[in-house]
Amino acid sequence: MTKSSKDRLPGTIDISPYPDGTWIIRNIRQLSIKAYRIIIGLLIHIGPIGRYRPPNGNFLAYRLLDEAQNKGKIVTASQQPRSKNKDSICDLAKLGQHAAEPWPIFWLRASNASLIGDSLIWRNSKDQICLEQCYGFELEMSIRNSKFIRNSFLENATLLNGSTTSLLTNWTQGTNYYHWIVDALPRISMLEYAPSDTRIIIPSAGAGFVDESMELLDLGDRCIKIESNHVICENFYFMSPTAQVGHWNPYAYSWLQNVFKKHFSKEIPNRRIFFTRRGNRRVPKNIRLIEKLFKKNGFDIIDCGAHPLLQQIQISSSAICVAGIHGAAMTNLLWTPHGIPILEIFESNYLNACYENISIHNSSNYAYIFHDFVDAPQRIEAWISSVCQNQIHS
Question: Phi and psi for 253 in degrees, rounded to 5?
């Protein structure tokens, strides 16, 4: 059945219906895997400090802009879409990361708004939760994305007087560098429409780059961290995500580059940079060989997890070329000079165009290689040789 226009955001994005009585059958595998968490959650939350109040569907904050009792504004109705070139990562990944426009960017004020769950999702008087804060990669509502169980048992409400906004969504818990920088921070661009004393809710258990970023933006003194999973805000300023997660987002890229530009390196760019990857997830088996290839050709091997945000910005802005393993460190392409050569190294079965998008915005000379192909070392050396020769002759 074709969905009606009222079940769509402006543009081409479908909104899947909220889970109905068949969700147990359709999500049996997921629920089985997480059964122990559910049981523990019930034991923790049932009792005098908590109460059962499950979500009852979802609502689009965007639609509330038409109601007279709410105050808000569309800041940007749509961004210029990018093209999907044949054989680009965007084309190969098949995630549609070029096609989420129009995506309206807007803010909205609501009185006595309830924020619930570990993501502090806005919930209205009908117990519906805000879709813009808990969508999945395809903007669909599901048991997983709505965190149905964890958002059903609420503590007694904590009251926040005055004006408040929140940077939290399912994607911006402060543990992933890309999602915090690209999905959370650009919402601050709409802070100018809120009172000057508006407080900003940030993750209570975020990584160091969360606090660092707010300090670099001179907003550290306005940030608050909430431990409760149930908050009522006297005046809540909802500032929408500026794009669907992982999608083409020139509004965010430009805003980020503008506000952090004062922290760029003051030196003339002169460094060849390789962003390596540490840890246990998606680290190439041949990472030592890859690092050796770059190091012998004059590249600095950078483990971004070992550097504070300010250093990452300064290192990246001093680059004349950048290569890196696909991962959050490549977010630092935002700070690189426009037009430089970029090489992104992927595992062939894990493709995502979020950093290709940044490179296109920067007019970079972007290329990619799959590290699990047998000829990967030769391809890497060929790219290095080409880049080095071009820089010698330029």
Answer: -60, -45
How many whole angstroms separate alpha carbon 6 and alpha carbon 14?
A: 10
DSSP 300-359: EEE-GGGS-HHHHHHHHHTEEEEEEESSGGGGGGGGSPTT-EEEEEEBTTB---HHHHHH
DSSP three-state, residue 226: coil
Q: Are 316 and 310 in contact (CB under 8 A)?
A: no
List the end-to-end C-alpha distance of the chain, in Å, as a whole number: 58
Rounded distance between C-alpha atoms, residue 309 and residue 164, angstroms? 26
pLDDT tens-digit profile of 40-61?
Answer: 555 545 544 456 677 777 888 9
**Structure-derived torsion over alpha carbons of residues 193, 194, 197, 202, reported in degrees to the nearest 10:** -110
What are the structural domain ranges in the chain? Answer: 5-76+105-247, 264-393
Do 285 and 355 meet the contact criterion of CB atoms below 8 Å apart?
no
pTM of the model: 0.84
Q: Which CATH number describes the domain made up of 264-393?
A: 3.40.50.360
Q: The dihedral of CA 308, 313, 316, 319: what is its sign?
A: negative
Q: Are 23 and 149 in contact (CB under 8 A)?
A: no
273 DSSP β-pair partners: 300, 322
